[in-house]
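Study this pair:
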Amino acid sequence: MARIKRLLLWVWKILTTPAATLSLAFLTLGGFVGGVIFWGAFNTALELTNTEEFCVSCHEMRANVYEELTRTIHFSNRSGVRASCPDCHVPHEWTDKIARKMQASKEVWGKIFGTINTREKFLDHRLELAKHEWARLEAN
């Protein structure tokens, strides 16, 4: 028991003692490089989730909303300009976009637990979902 206690104290001391051999410049540079890598990965993930392909990658969107979208003027019109999901449903300002992404985690929760995984369930929740989206669009 005493041996384990000494080992844990030794590990704790190593983890909580500043490194004597690493310079402040090295730690600062490492933090900067790590921050750049994190920021690049974060922005890449953010942009990948802002595509129509990502939006319709789940069965619920492809079989319900996207199929309906293909029959509207947003999808096919005389000018040839087509609106995609993120054009309207993802805010353009960065802070609003991040807030929307956090709200979307609730939608992921619904996906995992099958809240709208069939056409019937989708239609049952459609008005509620539409009201949420209308309010969000109006607020933006």
About this structure: The chain has a mean pLDDT of 84. The chain has one domain: 33-139. The radius of gyration is 24 Å. Helices lie at 2-16, 24-48, 52-55, 59-69, 85-89, 94-112, 119-139.
